[in-house]
């Protein structure tokens, strides 16, 4: 059997069902608990797609030494944990989550940052899979041989506070904020204690829900229309949000329709908003 290659950043349920038993395929469940929910991920999703493995964004695949949530782990940690999940250099990875399209783009972007291009998200996620009555099984512990995955870190795809503070006011850079309009303007308080409201000056607001309908990413034609309304030209795009998760939804949307260089601000407003000496607009 020839190697399995993924040619687009989003795959359909029918594509995944067709390739579910391919030996190169690795299916990852990157579910997060619903925002502001007290339930654990396991309580919300006692089932998984057949042969799926849990990609733990909150714990295993985030920097546990950081005071910020969901920050990128080191390439060494990412390598060892990906190997533990049985991921290989030639793996074709499809990632889904329990909310349709929510956390899976974060995991997709992390693999891109770590140099793995053969990766996509499942459009519609687990809800779409269940609706079509496709193969599921109880959530099982990972029991696979270690993989040979090795991270090839791409620093241009991730931005830190120093980098963003140096370019936010430059005409060749556009920062796109995926938070809700109310949080962007400061009219709605931030959910994290101690954070002021508002946004990074010169950034534009594109709530992540704008590129999603019924739990699925909008078609490419609709995404193109959305991004055509922005003055992008040859600007470098930096995506931000509250904690680096939903920014990746907009990054995924843009990846399909605009060729601009792009990165995700890993600390996002959870970092910027805690420093009163950094400028902010409301």
Automatic annotation (TrEMBL):
Keywords: Repeat, Transferase
EC number: 2.8.1.-
GO molecular function: transferase activity
Domain Rhodanese, chain residue ranges per copy: 21-138, 169-281
Cited InterPro entries: Rhodanese-like_dom, Rhodanese-like_dom_sf, TST/MPST-like
Name the record gives this protein: Sulfurtransferase
Originating organism: Agaribacillus aureus
């Amino acid at each position: 059997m020839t190697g399995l290659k993924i040619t687009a950043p989003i795959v359909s349920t029918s594509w995944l069902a067709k390739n579910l038993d391919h030996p190169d395929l690795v299916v990852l469940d990157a579910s997060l608990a619903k925002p502001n929910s007290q339930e654990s991920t396991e309580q919300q999703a006692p089932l998984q797609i057949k042969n799926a493995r849990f990609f733990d964004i909150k714990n295993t695949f985030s920097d546990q030494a950081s005071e910020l949530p969901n920050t990128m782990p080191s390439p060494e940690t990412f390598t060892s944990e990906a190997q533990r999940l049985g991921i290989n250099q030639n793996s074709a990875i499809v990632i889904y989550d329990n909310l349709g399209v929510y956390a899976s783009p974060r995991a997709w972007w992390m693999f891109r940052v770590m140099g793995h291009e053969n990766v996509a998200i499942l459009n519609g996620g687990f809800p779409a899979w269940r609706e079509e009555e496709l193969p599921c099984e109880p959530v099982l512990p990972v029991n696979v041989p270690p993989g040979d995955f090795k991270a090839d870190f791409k620093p241009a795809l991730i931005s830190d506070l120093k980098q963003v503070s140096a370019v936010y006011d430059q005409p060749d850079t556009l920062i796109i904020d995926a938070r809700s309009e109310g949080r962007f303007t400061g009219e709605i308080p931030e959910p994290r204690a101690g954070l002021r409201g508002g946004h990074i000056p010169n950034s534009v607001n594109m709530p992540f829900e704008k590129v999603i309908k019924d739990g699925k990413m909008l078609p490419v034609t609709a995404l193109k229309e959305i991004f055509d309304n922005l003055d992008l030209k040859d600007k470098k795009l930096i995506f931000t949000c509250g904690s680096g998760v939903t920014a990746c939804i907009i990054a995924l949307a843009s990846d399909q329709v605009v060729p601009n260089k792009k990165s995700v601000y890993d600390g996002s407003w959870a970092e910027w908003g805690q420093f009163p000496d950094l400028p902010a607009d409301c």
